[in-house]
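Please fill in the sequence for the structure shown.

STRUCTURE ENCODING:
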């Protein structure tokens, strides 16, 4: 008898439902959300377990790899598709959700999701921490400017970190109360800037040891941050049959609704990894506005900007960059200025 196991995971407890080929419930139970305890529960079923399914979520990478290491046939299911099955039930409980997942496995109505390894998640955590610190730095700079503006003090938008600190302190040095307020923010700003520099150094160390990132950084506008973000998001370039599919995977292709005579094209889907999409967009902007060297990709992007506007052109170039980076990764080659990927 083949058995299919659905796991509805929460932070503390995981509901477990086991069904057979006819989708009849064989066993129901719960466990603490610990891979060892879940595996111990499933060991009682013997070798009859055909598939164990869980949804995409924040705990999925940890549980998936630990259960896989325990010898269980684990698959990850897209939470959006699982949501369609859950919503079809008259009740919404954790037990009912676990049963829905088990029934999806039994009838084959699921598409397995690629689960990245923990090293990729470590790299994404590093980039995520850096991104948060950059946001905090930007907010602190804005707050300092806002505190000084009622007193007629304006600091140049192009002022670097050192000059910004010096001008802000000098502007309010004669006012004890204002100086105390601004100095407190500037001290925090200096600490945040130092932490960003430390994370940037860690990123460069990882990138120098990664051959794929070395190939990606040969593209104008693509630096260590963008290369590492793309590598951590994709992980395995060969899981894409066509290079053009990576654009849709990162949410850089337009949404479309077609029914009968109605056919509407919307803006980009924005699905997939927000961070990788953001850095590709920034790389596209850098390529079109900052990079001085000529290339077919830059010429194509500038021509497109004159036709449809700079914002849409940057999005289109970002999609081209995603396709190009994936191609370079697969071929293990460097960028050719005369080449424009489809």
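FILLED IN BY: designer on duty
SEQUENCE:
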């Amino acid at each position: 008898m083949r058995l299919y196991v659905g796991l509805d995971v929460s932070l503390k407890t995981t509901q477990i439902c086991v069904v057979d080929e006819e989708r009849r419930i064989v066993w129901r139970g719960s466990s603490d959300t610990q891979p060892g305890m879940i595996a111990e529960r499933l060991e009682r079923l013997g070798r009859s377990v055909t598939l164990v399914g869980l949804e995409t979520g924040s705990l999925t990478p940890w549980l998936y790899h630990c259960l896989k290491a325990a010898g269980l046939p684990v698959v990850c299911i897209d939470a959006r598709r699982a949501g369609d099955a859950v919503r079809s039930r008259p009740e919404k409980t954790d037990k009912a959700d676990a049963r829905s997942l088990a029934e999806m496995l039994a009838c084959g109505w699921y598409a397995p999701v690629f689960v990245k390894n923990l090293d990729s998640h470590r790299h994404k955590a590093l980039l995520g921490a850096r991104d948060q610190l950059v946001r905090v730095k930007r907010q602190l700079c804005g707050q300092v400017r806002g505190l000084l503006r009622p007193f007629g003090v304006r600091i140049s938008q192009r002022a670097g970190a050192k000059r910004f600190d010096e001008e802000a302190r000098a502007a309010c040095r004669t006012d004890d109360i204002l100086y105390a307020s601004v100095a407190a923010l500037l001290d925090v700003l200096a600490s945040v800037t130092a932490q960003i520099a430390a994370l940037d150094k860690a990123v460069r160390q990882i990138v120098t040891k990664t051959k794929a990132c070395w190939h990606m950084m040969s593209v104008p506008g693509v630096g260590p941050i963008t290369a590492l973000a793309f590598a951590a998001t994709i992980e395995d370039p060969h899981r894409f049959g066509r290079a053009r599919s990576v654009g849709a995977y990162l949410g850089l292709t337009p949404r479309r609704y077609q029914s009968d005579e109605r056919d509407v094209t919307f803006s980009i889907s924005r699905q997939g990894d927000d961070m990788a999409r953001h850095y590709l967009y920034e790389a596209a902007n850098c390529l079109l506005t900052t990079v001085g060297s000529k290339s077919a990709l830059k010429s194509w992007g500038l021509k497109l900007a004159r036709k449809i506007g700079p914002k849409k052109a940057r999005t289109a170039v970002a999609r081209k960059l995603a396709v190009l980076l994936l191609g370079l990764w697969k071929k293990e080659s460097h960028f050719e200025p005369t080449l424009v990927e489809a």
